[in-house]
Structure formats: C-alpha cells, structure tokens
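Hi P.,

Sorry for the delay on this. The queue was packed all week, but I finally got your sequence through. Input first:
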Amino acid sequence: MVLVLLVAAALPAPAADLAGRLEWVYDGDSIRVAHFGKVRLLGIDVPETEASQRDDFLLRRGVAATTLRQTATAARHYVQLLRGQTVRLQLPEVERDRYGRLLAYVYLPDGRLLNRSLIEEGLAVVYRRFDFTLKAEFIAAETLARQQQRGLWRLAVPLRKE
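Then the structure:
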C-alpha cells in the first residue's frame, strides 16, 4: 500500500492540472507562469529582437532583417496582452530544454493553443530541429500563414521551386 502511494506521488500531475497565471513575458516564445517558472513555447521560434545566427533560416526564405526585428516586437506584444490570464500547460515527454526552461504547449482560457496562434498570425515559425507531437500541424499552419502573407511573411520574397 505504501509503495502504491509513493509511486502515485512520483507521477506527474495530469495536464489539466498544470495551470498557472501568466506572470511575465520575456519574448514571443518564452514566458513565466506562476508555480512553474520560465516556460518555452514548444515547437515554435520567434525572431530575436537583435540580429543573430538564428536569422539565417528566415533570411534564406526571403524575410528581411528589419521585418524580423518588427516581428519579434509584435510577437512579444501579442503575448504581453495575455499577462495575468490563467493558462494551461501540456508537457511533452522531454520537459525541459538545455537552458532548464519548461517546454510546453500553452493553452489559453478560451482553449486556443498559443503556440499555434503565433504561427497562424505569422509571428513565429515552426522549430524544426527536433520532433514533437504537433509538428505536422504546425507546419501546415505556417504554410497557410505564408500563403496568406500574414505577419513576417507579408513582405517575404516568394520561394522558388527547388
């Protein structure tokens, strides 16, 4: 009986119970959630506010550097509007990134997935370096945002067929 209680106590809480108030917005893909600390939105990448090597992927896709900086600011503002709201976190198998941030899908009070919403608005792209459950769905959302010229794709040079 004691062993069963110890095992049950060691299991992670169900995803529905992982909820907290969005306290702080570091940038468009990193936030602080009460009781959980720093959270990195899983599966997305928002441009940085300053030029970096991470720009290369989007620069090769025809997005101008000035557009990247504007998108970084717009994404932070988009998420900033959610401050104070209670969000629900869904965690993958690998819960933390190499910087110790909790990796999560972040659901808004209305049920929308913040990670996907940022892609749909053209404020983020799919983080392609590793696999995750919703990767195909996120890539489809990014393709649609590009076709609709939303956000950072608004002024992007069309890709040539390779």
